[in-house]
Q: What sequence folds into this?
């Protein structure tokens, strides 16, 4: 693979963040749960100079000189979460969020890496914008951040961006998120071009001719409220179309924020086809095993709000914080998403953290912009609504909250000796009311506002540094 | 009841209380001096973000007949055109200390927001395609005058249900008072899931003769351009209520303004079955009753309730 311009060096580090003091910590007697490493038991965990130095039986490790001691008993230590889908609003919309506040919110939610979408102003559609954005993140981001570039210039859906140069400049993938790639021929060309530049194509699936002026899920609730509906088929028909195109071009696509039952079925069908294809190919074809394995591969994400809320919430209160795209759908859709997450049709949880300013959301429902914040509540919402009632096992949720990393070719956080520390300490029993003591995000448009959730992130270590301490926890430790 | 935002705010006794009071107000309009001092010194603010003739004038007449002061605020030529948000407009106008705000907007839920942002009582005079509760009240008033009671009556609502706030409020008011409601129109103009409001759905006028009441909705011309119906001609051929389709003992209603020759033929508009004029007259006494219900015997709104 060649750089588009040979004089421009290729970026070696996919994620950037500001320099921080590497942590020296002993977390004593904490319950370590790392499903991938097969750990689910109390341990002492020693972090030296930002790296996990040792795991020992509870009470077996001593805090060395200069290391901070954290009491971990009754608390869980999890591999840090990775969010492949957030909006940090930089450049151009810093009144909604910025790199500092957005990554502070992420750290408060237990995230150790996030990937920002390119629908900014200007759009991240050329390497100059991307480079300056990465420079800014190197100064401001509290946790490692990666950036997607757009598939089409200005998100206009007409002309491809310089994908190869953008990939060399550090684009983790390509997406027109917020909008679909409406023209099938453009998507096809992007998938052909993917053979040159690599990287995943992440797709916001929506047929605008079906979603029209819709502001919520089309169904009984929209009929009662007189609000224009967004039918489930506006999403699922585009997934069917795009997975067919990706299959034909043997491209690698990732479906963003699934919301409908029909969409889960469409992804499941596409995955089944992909498996058959690679089995056929393995017979004859030679070549790079990894390339072959991921070719024609489709992955999918789901948000905490689509897993836990339905359009019924909008009937209770016409709250603009409940307005997002794709919309909250019916209970049947919600159950299908949970089943899809459980059976592997859906690969990971992604928040689609979409901050907006207060004045933008303090308007009638139809006028309000789409989007909810989600970084600070992701774990607690899923834990409270799905793990506590026994719908999903905790280990599965923990795994899905960082599974986005592997999909984008990023390292997956692990709690194992020798790894750079990327983890979060959580009190599963702590109850808190969302928004009661404000948000770390600059924005307040959280769809869980006012709800009482269980599971509080007490501290987060990202890229080897302590990047967040919950206020009361920090005080008690001092 | 503090506000009238949705017809759901009223149970059956609540609706009947307002209708009874409205009836008692009819006598005022017969007088030489058409005024009673019931709401003297109270301030009613008409806040209209959409064009409206009958709703606004009937609220104004209702308020003035009850001796309230009326301020009219219409969006054209106002600060709204300079980009003022609904919240700022409401908070600014609240400084005039209205006791009650009548609000009409093109946005679903906007009346509820006004109620949140102002200490005044709020009457929803139409919020987008959501609700128009005083229209529903004047319609049930008109029907009760004709039928005595709605219990067991069969009411067909015909036309563009998808874009109609009148349909949504009326389905609920009619069923609350014991009527059976059928909505009928082209499938493109019947919202998916509307059965959940407690009505039946039909796509043709076959069976219309079983209706006691035929309630025709306004068919807006712009629906043609969005392909909801291929042409007004085809719509009229299948859904127009005309002399052949309307039975002698059926009651014909329409919320106005009528598109003559589209949803109704000229002959039925002027027929004895039509109660369209009675609906308009009922509008004034019903709105008097609503204003009275919300304001009489109530102290001025508590300023402490103003929230930022």
A:
């Amino acid at each position: 693979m060649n750089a588009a311009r040979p004089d421009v060096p290729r970026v070696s580090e996919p994620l950037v963040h500001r320099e921080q003091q590497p942590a020296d910590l002993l977390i004593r007697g904490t319950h370590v749960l790392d499903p991938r490493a097969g750990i689910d038991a109390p341990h002492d965990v020693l972090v030296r100079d930002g790296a996990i130095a040792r795991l020992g039986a509870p009470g077996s490790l001593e805090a060395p000189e200069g290391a901070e001691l954290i009491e971990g008993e009754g608390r869980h230590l999890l591999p840090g979460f990775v969010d492949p889908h957030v909006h940090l609003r930089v450049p151009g919309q810093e009144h909604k969020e910025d790199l500092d506040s957005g990554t502070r919110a992420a750290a408060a939610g237990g995230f150790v890496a996030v990937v920002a979408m390119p629908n900014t102003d200007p759009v991240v559609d050329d390497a100059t914008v991307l480079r300056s954005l990465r420079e800014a993140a190197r100064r401001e981001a509290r946790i490692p951040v990666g950036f997607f570039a757009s598939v089409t210039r200005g998100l206009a859906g007409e002309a491809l961006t310089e994908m190869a140069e953008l990939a060399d400049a550090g684009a983790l993938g390509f997406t027109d998120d917020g909008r679909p790639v409406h023209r099938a021929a453009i998507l096809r060309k992007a998938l052909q071009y993917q053979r040159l530049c690599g990287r995943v194509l992440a797709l916001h699936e929506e047929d605008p001719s079906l979603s029209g002026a819709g502001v919520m899920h089309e169904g009984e609730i929209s009929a009662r409220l007189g609000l224009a509906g967004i039918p489930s088929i506006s999403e699922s028909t585009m997934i069917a179309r795009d997975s067919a195109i990706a299959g034909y071009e043997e491209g690698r696509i990732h479906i963003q924020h699934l919301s409908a039952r029909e969409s889960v079925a469409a992804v499941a069908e596409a995955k089944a086809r992909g498996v058959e294809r690679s089995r056929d190919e393995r017979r004859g074809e030679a070549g790079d095993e990894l390339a072959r394995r991921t070719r024609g591969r489709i992955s999918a994400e789901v948000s905490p709000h689509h897993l836990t809320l339905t359009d019924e919430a909008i009937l209770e209160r016409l709250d603009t914080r409940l307005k997002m795209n794709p919309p909250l759908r019916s209970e049947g859709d919600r159950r299908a998403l949970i089943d899809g997450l459980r059976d592997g049709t859906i690969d990971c949880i992604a928040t689609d953290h979409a901050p907006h300013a207060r004045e933008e959301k303090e308007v009638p429902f139809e006028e309000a912009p789409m989007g909810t914040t989600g970084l600070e509540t992701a774990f607690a919402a899923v834990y409270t609504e799905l793990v506590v009632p026994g719908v999903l096992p905790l280990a599965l949720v923990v795994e899905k909250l960082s599974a986005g990393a592997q999909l984008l070719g990023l390292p997956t956080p692990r709690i194992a000796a020798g790894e750079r520390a990327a983890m979060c300490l959580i009190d599963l029993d702590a109850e808190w009311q969302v928004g009661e003591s404000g948000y770390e995000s600059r924005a307040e448009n959280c769809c869980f506002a006012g709800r009482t959730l269980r599971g509080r992130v007490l501290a987060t270590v990202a890229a080897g540094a302590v990047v967040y301490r919950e206020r009361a926890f920090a005080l008690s430790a001092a | 009841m503090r506000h009238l935002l949705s017809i759901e705010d009223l149970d059956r006794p609540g609706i009947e209380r307002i209708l009874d009071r409205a009836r008692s107000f009819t006598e005022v309009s017969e007088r030489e001096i058409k005024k009673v001092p019931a709401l003297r010194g109270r301030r009613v603010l008409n806040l209209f973000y959409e064009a409206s003739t009958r709703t606004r004038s009937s609220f104004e007449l209702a308020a003035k007949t009850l001796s309230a002061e009326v301020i009219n605020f219409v969006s054209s030529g106002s600060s709204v055109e300079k980009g003022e948000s609904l919240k700022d407009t409401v908070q600014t106008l609240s400084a005039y200390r209205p006791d009650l705000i009548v609000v009409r907007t093109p946005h679903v839920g906007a009346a509820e927001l006004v109620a949140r942002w102002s200490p005044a009582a709020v009457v929803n005079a139409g919020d987008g395609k959501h609700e128009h509760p005083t229209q529903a009240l004047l319609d049930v008033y008109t029907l009760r005058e004709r039928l005595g009671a709605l219990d067991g009556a069969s009411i067909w609502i015909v036309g563009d249900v998808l874009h109609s706030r009148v349909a949504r409020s009326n389905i609920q008011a009619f069923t609350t008072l014991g009527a059976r409601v059928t909505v009928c129109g082209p499938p493109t103009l019947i919202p998916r899931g509307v059965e959940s409001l407690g009505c039946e759905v039909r796509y043709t006028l076959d069976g219309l003769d079983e209706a006691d009441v035929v309630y025709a909705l306004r068919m807006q011309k712009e629906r043609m351009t969005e392909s909801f119906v291929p042409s007004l001609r085809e719509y009229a051929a299948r859904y127009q209520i005309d002399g052949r389709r309307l039975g002698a003992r059926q009651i014909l209603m329409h919320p106005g303004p009528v598109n003559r020759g589209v949803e109704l033929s000229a002959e039925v508009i002027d027929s004895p079955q039509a109660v369209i004029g009675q609906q308009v007259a009922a509008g004034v006494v019903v709105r008097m009753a609503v204003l009275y219900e919300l304001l009489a015997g109530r102290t001025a709104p508590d300023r402490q309730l103003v929230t930022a």
In short: The first strand of chain B starts at residue 43 and ends at 48. The interface with chain A takes residues 85-87, 105, 107-110, 112-113, 128-131, 165, 168, 191-197 of chain B (CB under 8 Å). Residues 276-295 of chain B form the longest helix (20 residues).
